[in-house]
Each structure stands twice: as C-alpha cells, then as structure tokens.
Design goal:
Metallo-beta-lactamase, Chain A; about 15% strand; binds zinc ion
Length: about 280
Amino acid sequence: MIDVGCGGPAGYDHLHGGLTSIGLALRDLHTVVLSHAHPDHMGAMKYVLEVVHPRVLIHSLDVGAALDISRLHESFDIPLAKERFVPFDRFQDFDLMEFFNIFGCSMNPTENVAAINDGDVLRLGDFEFEVLLTPGHAPGHISLFERKTGILLANDLVGVSPAWYTPSSGGLTGYLESLNKLQSKKASVLIPSHGPVMENSEASIGRIREKLLKREGILLEALRAGPRKFMDLLAALFHDASIHFFPGCGILESHLIKLAKDGKIARSGDLISLIR
Ligand SMILES: [Zn+2]
Ligand SMILES: [Zn+2]
C-alpha cells in the first residue's frame, strides 16, 4: 500500500472502505510505502498498527518525522513563520498538531521503519518502482516511477494546484528541480495523491511549474513599485489572509531565497528591494 491517509474518523473509513472494495483487510497489509511524513499520508498508521505491523518504507530524510512527529515543526518552518509574521504575538501559540486536528486529519507516528533512498527500486507485486527523491514540499518527499508501465506516482508534487513549500522542505528551488526530474521520466500517465489521474504528464508538470513561476512574477511586479516589507509581499501573493501565517510565510520565504540567489533582490532587515 502506498500511503494510508489521514488520522481521524474519515481517514479510517477511507482506509477500511478502500481495502474492502478490493477484497482486502487491514490484516493483509505487509508493506506500506510512505511518500512523505505528512498527516494526510500517514496519520492513519494509527489504525493500521492497531491491527497489523507491516514494514514501512520511507525516504531516509523523512524517517525522523515519521517516528517523532514533533519534528514536523522544523520542516513546516513554523519557527520561521513565527519570526516573520507581524503582528508578532498573534501566532506565538500556534501548535501544528492542533492545526491538523482541526482539519480532522491528525498526525500519528509509525514503527518498523526502513529507510529508502533515491534510485532504489521497490519490487512490489508485478511492479518495479524507482524511488525518486523529489523535495520541495517535504525534505524526504518521494515520487515513484514504474518502469515497465511508465506510471508515475507524483504524490503531492503535481496536482491541480502546486503543493505548499517551505525552505526546510526543499524550497522553491528544490520544487523546480524535482519537477524537472519528474518531467525527464516522460511518464505515460501521472497519478497524483490529490486529484484526478493525468493522462498528459508533461503538460501537467509544466502547468505546476508555470504556477510557481507566476508567483515569482507577482513578487517582482510588486517590488517594481519600490521596496516592500515581508508582510506587504505576503498580501500581494495571497489574497486569502487565512493562509498568510501557514503556509504563506514559508512559501514567500522560499521565493525570496531563490530571488536573492538569482541576484534579483536585496534584503535589508525586513525590507526587500529589487536589484536593477
Ligand atoms: Zn504533503
Ligand atoms: Zn498530501
């Protein structure tokens, strides 16, 4: 099984219902491959472990968070958001695990973990999945490319919209490099974790790249009018204020890191300006 879904009652129903629909039960699970250590992909390990103890394969960079879920604060860059967000005291008590619970998708740790790495080949049933390390959204996020059929499980990296990204999860630079890696596989079909199957994998990957670069364009446009503060750029990038703290801060910081590295912006304290 690749990913088990959310912790929480709906997650249990999906997991149980999905297995039942193909004539299986939780007790039949012998191997679980986790695409990354996020609650909507592995929170339901809690229900699995109540019944059975499969081997759990996850990229070595996400093993830590899969065993100790408090470590997600780092890869979600919550301390960074608390530092950047103004007014400063508004989110000082923000608790990531509580945030997951509010969405009915609680995070739970797993056990029996074995680390996998880029280039490993997982022989599962009739399939041979090549492990592709594709950071950006999580440091140890993997995609799986089935060599015989050309099926690409892009997991969270490609969907209808881009996944969120933070510097510690690989950042924008990591995300763009991961998209190049996926596109180079010339997959016959792309299956995302969220959303419908995509027949034209190259076009689907290209659309995500365009959306990421469109955000870069919005930031450059805002800066053309003069130096801006972090919070100003956050408002320019996202009209929906409810996502400004998370994932907004991490996404914006990822863009600013790339723009500074590309020699397009300069940062002085909280002020960001264009290099002409
Ligand atoms: Zn995710
Ligand atoms: Zn996801």
